[in-house]
Amino acid sequence: ELWASLSPLELDEASLDSSRVVSFAGQHPARTSFDILRTRLTKMLRENDWSRLAVTSSTKGEGKTFVSLNLALSLARNRDNWVMLLDLDLRAPGLSRVLRSREGRGADDFLHGEVDPRDYFQSIDQNLIVGLNSHVVPNSAELIQSETAEAVLNAAIDLFQPTIVIYDL
Fold it and tell me: How far apart are CA 47 and CA 43, in angstroms?
């Protein structure tokens, strides 16, 4: 019920296709690669009793948002998975741009505990929610390492109880 009560994020298939989001709809050949990654990742997470995944890169433009979003969509096609995807790349946020969200949400307000998780997260599907970031956040390293941010993230996870959390870093 909580997930269903979140503000829905409407996706435009043509925009997603132009951003190479292959796991949303259709039968794109690369979709199979993300399904294989999903299967292997799910097995590894279960074997190690893990539920969180950080996707990062050494430099800008290497495809972490591409991987994060396609993997989240692939995971969410399995209705046993409850997937939470967060854009925590505070220096160069990308999910809002790819998803064409004009909501103007800021991860900094959320991580400072100033926004209720029910108002911050949006639903893409019945079992996929996203926390977007609309702008560059100054002092991002300090914020992401703060005790407040840790407490806020843990509280959101406790509230929504996702089976898998993906951080786009």
Answer: 6
Q: Is the pTM of this model over 0.85?
A: yes
Query: Which residues 6+ apart lie within 8 Å of 79 measured at CB?
Result: 126, 127
Q: In what order do the strands lie in the sheet with 122-125?
A: 7-8, 122-125, 128-131, 83-87, 164-168, 52-55
H/E run at residue 158: helix 147-160
- Beta carbons of 110 and 152 less than 8 angstroms apart: yes
Which of these, 41, 94, 42, 44, lies nearest to 69 by C-alpha position? 94
- Each residue's pLDDT tens digit in the chain (169 positions)? 899 999 998 877 766 666 666 666 667 677 788 889 999 999 999 999 999 999 998 877 778 888 999 899 999 999 999 999 999 999 888 888 878 777 667 899 999 999 999 999 999 989 999 999 989 899 999 999 999 999 999 999 999 999 999 999 9
